[in-house]
UniProtKB/TrEMBL annotation:
InterPro entries tied to this protein: ChsH2_C, NA-bd_OB-fold, Thioester_dehydratase-like
Short name of any one Pfam family annotated for the protein: OB_ChsH2_C
Gene Ontology molecular functions: DNA binding
The keyword Acetylation is annotated on this UniProt entry: no
Protein name from the UniProt record: DNA-binding protein
Keywords: DNA-binding
Organism: Kineobactrum sediminis
Length: 149
């Protein structure tokens, strides 16, 4: 019997391509880079943030963009006592649904708060921008509670 020769080569499997964000998501991310939050208006008049490419009611392409505020209302939240390495904050925080002023739907992002007891549905929150904004969702570092007057 002849010995069989085995050949091997080390390699790394990867997907080396770039995806375009397109005109809708791209506009949203460019807005974040410029510290502005952009949504779009659906056929029913609602302002959707983040913006969507197609109307949820008619499926038609949407092209009316609207700038919304940096403050909003805490709609719902879930407290994270023990953040994992992949989480956006290294200390306890909340995943929050925030309806920004001028928007008709809530967006999900992280919320920094002194503790779970400080949170309540209906609380007012504001954007805390990253020190350097580059056009990623992480340009919104997190939301924080607005100080009561």
């Amino acid at each position: 019997m002849q010995a069989t020769e085995h050949l091997s080569q080390t390699f790394e499997l990867g997907f080396t391509y770039t995806r375009s964000t397109g005109p809708v998501v791209g506009r949203f991310l460019t807005g974040l880079r410029d510290r502005r939050i952009i949504g779009n208006r659906g056929s029913d008049g609602r302002v959707l943030v983040p913006p969507v490419e197609y109307d949820p009611v008619t499926a038609a392409a949407l092209d009316e963009f609207v700038e919304v505020g940096e403050e909003g209302t805490l709609v719902s939240w879930c407290w994270v006592n023990e953040p994992r390495a992949a989480h956006p904050l290294a200390k306890p925080f909340a995943w929050a649904m925030v309806q920004l002023d001028g928007a008709d739907v809530a967006m999900i992002h992280c919320l920094e708060a002194p503790g779970e007891d400080a949170l309540a549905t209906g609380a007012r929150v504001k954007v805390s921008w990253a020190a350097e904004t580059i056009g990623f969702i992480t340009d919104i570092r997190c939301f924080t509670l607005l100080e009561e007057a």
